[in-house]
Predict the structure of Triosephosphate isomerase.
Amino acid sequence: MNINKRKLLVAGNWKMNGTRSLVKEFIKDFDTKFLSSMDVALCPPSILIAEFSEGRIPVGAQDVSACDNGAHTGDLSVSMLNDFECKYCIVGHSERRDDHGESSELVAEKAAKLIEAGITPIICCGEPLSVREAGKVNEYVEAQLKAVFDRIPVSQLGDAVIAYEPIWAIGTGVTASPQEAQDVHAFIRQFIASYDGKLADSMQILYGGSVKPDNAKELFGQADIDGGLIGGASLKAKDFNAICQAAY
Ligand SMILES: O=C[C@H](O)COP(=O)(O)O
């Protein structure tokens, strides 16, 4: 049992991967004991969200529109996510910022929309390698998060989650060392504290970027790391179970 700090959250992000049969297999193999003492979520591609209704795993989406229902081809609204009982929704993942040119202001709008609808946003931030090499990680991450804190009153951010994901560690097998990750998480918590100390103490800050069964425990053991946003390793229930075990 993890004794430190806040309740931990392990969230899987399947990205653009998965099939209906993988969902069935995953539901069968996922160990539901984890649901009793920690937060768990699985964010499949939106076309597979309904398939998770047969299991007990809380489900999330990977993105949402900042607009209400209407003429927005290809998008999903918060009310649609609510209709499918999504508890979480990732926003501002670096792949969306890169592939779809999403700005931090748009990410903040999406997060605001989710909070208004009662869905927990998992707000991603994180720097590319060039920024780390230039020694500007804190400034970069702060600018991404400031857009959110400028847009949403702290009184409404109680249920939001932040995920720090250094881009150079995503899908590369290169993980930030526990200390490197902890340093940025501590900075993020300090940044939140500059708005509201209580919020800083309670907000879950996840680490993402090549989290695997063999490195999860050390990462989650850091004082300011409250779990993980897991990409590749969340596609196999066996590995996802092992990562949840590290947080259990
Ligand atoms: O959302 C998840 C992250 O991008 C991490 O992906 P990864 O675990 O495959 O490196």
